[in-house]
Design goal:
Elements: E1 11-21, E2 28-35, E3 40-42, E4 45-47, H1 54-66, E5 68-83, E6 86-100, E7 110-114, H2 116-122, H3 126-141
Parallel strand pairs: 1-6
Antiparallel strand pairs: 1-2, 1-4, 2-3, 2-7, 5-6
Helix pairs in contact: 2-3
Amino acid sequence: MTAPEDDTRTVRAAGCVLWRRSPFDDGLEICLVHRPKYGDWSHPKGKLKRGEAPLAGALREVAEETGHSCTPGTTLPTVRYVANGRPKRVDYWAAEAAGGAFTPNAEVDRIVWLSPAAARNRLTQPRDRKLVDALLDALRVA
């Protein structure tokens, strides 16, 4: 189900596919977050605050969920789905980790840094896997 952009019922959210170069072999690593409330693995994301711009919300969510600051890059595909009976739209950006440290909290109890193939396999929702491919495509062009 795709909702019109002006549908006030649509829950707006934003997030990032957070990446870094491995400190061990310089390979690409993608950060995934584990949310104990849902028992899932996903990219850092969350609902926008009233009046908050999507990119600002995405960067805030990365900091809150992973403890890392980041440098945003290219826009990635928007993901749309129905959650709790309401349409949801999540805008995503590629974002390179720029430092920080994770501290477990009630919302996110673990993060992992994985190769793109391992991240694709660990993601709980199939809809999130296309974002890994979009990131790889964006980094090849950059």
